[in-house]
Amino acid sequence: MNINNLTAKGRIKLSNPLHLLATCFGSSILMNWMPGTAGSLVAIPLWFVLHTLLSWPLDLFVIIFSWIIGIYVCHKTACDISIHDHSYIVWDELVGMWIILITLPHYTITLIALSFILFRFLDIWKPWPIRWCHDQVQGGIGIMLDDVIASIITTMILHISGLCSAIS
């Protein structure tokens, strides 16, 4: 079934807690011309709130828990709007950015911006294996997994290239 964005937007109910989470608190609907970017941007200040309040092990727990609930949240929202991995579903982008941010050795505007841009590039372009996961793995796991892989590749590029230590 081919459903346009207006129809999908009408099926998302921000009064539904699962839809609210899947859309990163409605950010993807508000910025509907670049919803994945909206979700990735929302992730950054939320990360700093979490990171300030919690220790590293608890940060890691929150990321793992967010990934696990994201599988259900994204799957249920996709079923509700009848579109697998619709662009308004951006919880996966939030978790992907958090995975990157937890691995950074320090936080500078330049390093965060570079991480964000590289992650968005990989998430949009979807080189192998990201594309394979996006196309072949269905349900909530598929929605979440391609962004997790994009975040792991982003992290590897930043660390192996030495950019994390070069940018201070």
UniProtKB/TrEMBL annotation:
Keyword terms: Cell inner membrane, Cell membrane, Hydrolase, Lipid degradation, Lipid metabolism, Magnesium, Membrane, Metal-binding, Phospholipid degradation, Phospholipid metabolism, Transmembrane, Transmembrane helix
Annotated Pfam families: PgpA
Pathway(s) this gene product operates in, as recorded in its UniProt entry: Phospholipid metabolism; phosphatidylglycerol biosynthesis; phosphatidylglycerol from CDP-diacylglycerol: step 2/2
GO CC annotation: plasma membrane
InterPro entries found in the cross-reference section: PgpA, PgpA-like_sf, YutG/PgpA
TM spans (from-to): 20-48, 54-74, 95-119, 148-167
Presence of the UniProt keyword Cell membrane in the record: yes
Membrane topology: Multi-pass membrane protein
Catalytic activity: a 1,2-diacyl-sn-glycero-3-phospho-(1'-sn-glycero-3'-phosphate) + H2O = a 1,2-diacyl-sn-glycero-3-phospho-(1'-sn-glycerol) + phosphate
Domain YutG/PgpA: from-to ranges: 21-160
First-level EC class: hydrolase
Cofactors, names only: Mg(2+)
Source superkingdom: Bacteria
Location within or outside the cell: Cell inner membrane
GO molecular function, one term: metal ion binding
Signal peptide: none
Function according to Swiss-Prot or TrEMBL: Lipid phosphatase which dephosphorylates phosphatidylglycerophosphate (PGP) to phosphatidylglycerol (PG).
Protein name: Phosphatidylglycerophosphatase A
Organism: Baumannia cicadellinicola subsp. Homalodisca coagulata
